[in-house]
């Protein structure tokens, strides 16, 4: 086959174009720190990157869900702590009222404070996170307790489930029905009966101590169940944090360029390109007049 000057020139231009393309890719990698800048650069890396980023996005969403779970559970635990303290104060007042030395006026004064504590417990029972009531199950837009209208028990005990991991829906709320009636009687009815007994001076006030202890034990049991679920949330949080780190590392290993290698490859390609330019200058140097001499 006869090699012409045109063939040599075309091959030289093609090789120079390829050399420019190689240097362009290396310069893009050095500037962006990424192996590819578009999917066509390496479809395998691009597809893996999409899958890894989907996994990381899911983990980040679960972590945002956990923030809601923490907020809900911590608010519930704080409300239960206040309720425990309030019941303890009612018990102290009941012990004081059961003393036979109290006059009717003394009992009425104690009854006034117990009544205020009952309303305080009702306020605690209507604790909200944002615009959601904590103790009325999944019906979070309605207050569970309304003493003014005689509503003294939640009307919904469904669980509030929040997705905290793939396939894991965690119950984040406290069952209001269990909280207020789990001891076998209604907390607010018992408090109202206690107030009436103090105001009228009728009945054996000592008997209410057992009832109050039962309600206090029930609140403690509910709080213990909440604490167990909170511990599980912390374990899930730790696991999600590890998954986030792992997913980020995988994405980095898949997409990030090794800058040291890129710099070496770019330096080598520049040397090759200079050599190609030197050879090309020799190829295109002869002209028609040089052949006619």
From TrEMBL:
The keyword Calcium does not apply. GO terms for biological process: bacterial-type flagellum-dependent cell motility. Keywords: Cell projection, Cilium, Flagellum. GO terms for molecular function: structural molecule activity. InterPro entries: Flagell_FlgL (IPR013384), Flagellin (IPR001492), Flagellin_N (IPR001029). SUPFAM superfamilies: Phase 1 flagellin. Residues 5-140 form the Flagellin N-terminal domain. GO terms for cellular component: bacterial-type flagellum hook. The keyword Glycosyltransferase does not apply. It comes from the Bacteria. This is Flagellar hook-associated protein 3 FlgL. It comes from Litchfieldia salsa.
């Amino acid at each position: 086959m006869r090699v012409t000057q045109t063939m040599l020139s075309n091959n030289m231009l093609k090789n120079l174009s390829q050399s420019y393309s190689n240097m362009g890719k290396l310069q893009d990698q050095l500037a962006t720190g990424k192996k590819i800048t578009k999917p066509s650069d390496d479809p395998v890396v691009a597809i893996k990157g999409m899958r890894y980023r989907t996994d990381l996005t899911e983990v980040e969403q679960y972590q945002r869900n956990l923030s809601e779970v923490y907020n809900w559970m911590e608010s519930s635990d704080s409300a239960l702590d206040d309720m425990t303290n309030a019941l303890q104060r009612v018990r102290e007042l009941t012990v004081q009222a059961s003393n036979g030395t109290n006059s009717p006026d003394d009992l009425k004064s104690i009854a006034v404070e117990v009544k205020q504590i009952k309303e305080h417990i009702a306020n605690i029972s209507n604790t909200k996170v944002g615009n959601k009531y904590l103790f009325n199950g999944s019906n979070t837009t309605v207050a569970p307790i309304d003493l003014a209208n005689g509503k003294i028990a939640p009307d919904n005990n469904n669980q509030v489930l929040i997705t905290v991991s793939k396939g894991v829906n965690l119950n984040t709320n406290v069952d209001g029905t269990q909280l207020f009636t789990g001891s076998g009687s209604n907390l607010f009815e018992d408090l109202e009966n206690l107030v009436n007994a103090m105001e009228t001076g009728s009945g054996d006030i000592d008997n209410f101590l057992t009832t109050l202890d039962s309600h206090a034990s029930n609140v403690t049991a509910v709080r213990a169940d909440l604490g167990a679920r909170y511990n599980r949330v912390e374990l899930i949080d730790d696991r999600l944090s590890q998954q986030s780190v792992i997913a980020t590392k995988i994405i980095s290993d898949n997409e990030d360029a090794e800058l040291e290698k890129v710099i070496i490859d770019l330096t080598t390609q520049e040397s090759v390109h200079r050599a190609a330019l030197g050879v090309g200058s020799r190829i295109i140097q002869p002209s028609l007049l040089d052949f006619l001499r």
